Amino acid sequence: MKRNIVASPMLQEARKYEREHMLSPEVRPAFHLTPAVGWMNDPNGFSFYNGEYHLFYQYFPFDVKWGPMHWGHAVTDDFLHWKYLPAAIAPDAPEDNIGCFSGGAVTAPDGRLALIYTGVSGTDEDVTQNQCLAVWNGSDYEKKGVVIDGMSLPEGFSRKDFRDPKVTWDGRRYHMTAVSRAADGCGQMLRFSSMDLVHWNYEGIAAHNKDARYGIMWECAEELRISGRDLFIISGQNMHAIGKEFFAGDHAFYCFADETKDGFVHARNLDYGFDFYATQTLRIEDGRVVMLAWMHNWDNEFQPVSQEWNGQMTVPRELEVRNGRLYQRPVRELDAFRNAGIHRQGWRVSGLQSLAGVSGRVLDLALTLSGTDYQIFTLHLAHSSEFDIAVIYDRCHQSITVDRTLDGAIRDVPTVRTFSVHSVPEHQTSADPLHIRVVLDRYSAELFVNRGAQTFTAAFYTPLEADGIAFESDGVTDVDADFYRLDL
Ligand code: FRU
User: Fold this and answer.
1) What's the rounded Cα separation, in Å, for the pair 164 and 118?
2) Quick one: pLDDT at residue 1?
3) What is the mean pLDDT of residues 321-350?
């Protein structure tokens, strides 16, 4: 007999709240996903089901702060236009009374969408994390309880830190990765497999954060194969700085599986910016691997007091492995929303200059900077007499600094960050042209350096009136510029 499942009072309350307080598109970015209302962190359950891409997210509708975690829900068919669906799950069951933490989604054997998430239960002082299942029943996600109990893990593995299941189907069986804290206190990535999403076999440790080299605990880890290379993508908590590659704090990084023979020793930064954490990927039908991340960071707690949403996702990015490294680019669907554009070739920039018609806060701008007759080239974004986001290329030192000191914030969060430009085949020395693409969407800038060999993501909440763009060189820089407004 079919059970008549009715959403719990807690889920109904969340849905009622989001219906009554749903924010209007004008107060949001144009194409980056924000919460229906309130707080958002990690992307969850990125999946394709019933002809649409589904994205769930860590969600607390009632405030702009993190709170008992629900899963928000949105769908899209182009990764850029999002439609909100009612909140999917709430922390309303004994196995998730503290929160429904991050997880994945996959089509179940019977063809329904299944959510696999971390149920956090117990009391705030004494929590347990287990992996749980909820399955779409046509009107709601029906909770099926715990499917991997932390108690079943080997001796010494933490019961408090065991979370963030990511599930894929290989045509024969389901595979899960989840993070856990090992007996030495460091993060590790575990593997599980299943035929039915209910019974899971523990398959061992995929990677371990030896000597706490990359953070302490790990979060939101997954394994994937791109262009024949196996790689891990992991978010590390509490990293210490490593040269100019990693800053202190929480970071997402990646590592090729065949470079991890002797422990986890060769991680590379996935994004050098202030606001990029907790990634999730999806392989789509045409073979592309699309990744997005929470465009925020636990350490950067700031936003204008009047803003009724907190947290946004990055633009979904296509991943590719070339030249032994990962490249990222915004999904190609974005190209369709470019206007005719303004194009300049061999424009000689010296001093501070602007280009007629080049301004705005929703745009796509690609620059190629050539010549050796300058040291510093600066691109000014969200610029006015009062505000500025500066992208500063130091050609001689091969570094890029992003300075958001003048973004209008009133909290003292990191505002200046510098990273080294890596040598890649398309840019080997300081004499070679630098290619940089900037995607701006009202409250963020995403930089793709040398066709996505390195990226930098920054959120900022500068008033929208500051929409100037300026170009500045301390010598003469030869600039090729392709500027497009994005009309979405
Ligand atoms: C990462 C994270 C996850 C956890 C979730 C809780 O940002 O800490 O490990 O599942 O956020 O909201």
Assistant:
1) 6
2) 42
3) 97
Q: Give me the percent of the chain exceeding a pLDDT of 90.
A: 92
pTM: 0.97
Q: Which residue has the tokens 């690609």?
A: 366
If one compares 17 and 306, the residue with the highest pLDDT of the two is 17
Residue range 76-89: average pLDDT?
98
Query: Is the predicted pLDDT of residue 3 greater than 70, yes or no?
Result: no
Position in ligand 1 atom list of the atom nearest CA 250: 7
180-197, pLDDT tens digit by residue? 999 999 999 999 999 999
Residue 262 CB partners (closer than 8 Å, separation 6+): none
Using the mean position of ligand 1's atoms as its centre, give its distance from the Cα of residue 219 in Å. Answer: 7
Higher model confidence: residue 124 or residue 136?
A: 136
Point out the catalytic residue in the list 42, 250, 275, 403: 42
Measured from the Cα of 277, ligand 1's closest atom is 7
How high is the pLDDT of residue 337? 98
In this structure, which residue's CA is closest to atom 9 in ligand 1? 219
What is the Cα–Cα distance from 336 to 314, expressed in whole angstroms?
18
Quote the ligand 1 centre to 46 CA distance (angstroms).
Answer: 15
Specify whether the CB–CB gap between 442 and 30 falls below 8 A.
yes
Looking at residue 26, the DSSP 8-state letter turns out to be: G
**What b/e string do you get for 449-467 counting C-beta neighbours within 10 Å, with b at 16 or more?**
bbbbbbbbbbbbbbeeebb
Q: Counting every residue, how long is the chain?
A: 488
Distance between CA atoms of residues 136 and 134, nearest Å = 7
* pLDDT number for residue 300: 86
**480 a catalytic residue:** no
Q: Are strands 38-49 and 309-310 parallel, antiparallel or unpaired?
A: parallel
Contacts of 60 (CB under 8 A, 6+ apart): 38, 39, 66, 67, 68, 69, 70
Counting Cα atoms < 13 Å in the Cβ hemisphere of 403 gives 14
Atom of ligand 1 nearest to the CA of 219: 9
Ligand 1 site residues (CB inside 6 A) read 41-42, 58, 69, 101-102, 118, 163-164, 219-220, 277-278
Instruction: Using DSSP bridges, classify how beta strands 444-449 and 434-441 pair: parallel, antiparallel or unpaired.
Output: antiparallel
Distance, in Å, from the CA atom of 146 to the CA atom of 103, rounded to the nearest integer, reads 13
pLDDT for 149: 98
Q: Give pLDDT tens digits for 426-479.
A: 999 999 999 999 999 999 999 999 999 999 999 999 999 999 999 999 999 999
Task: Describe the chain by its helix, strand, coil percentages, rounded to 5.
Answer: 5, 55, 40
CA 124 to centroid of chain Cα atoms? 27
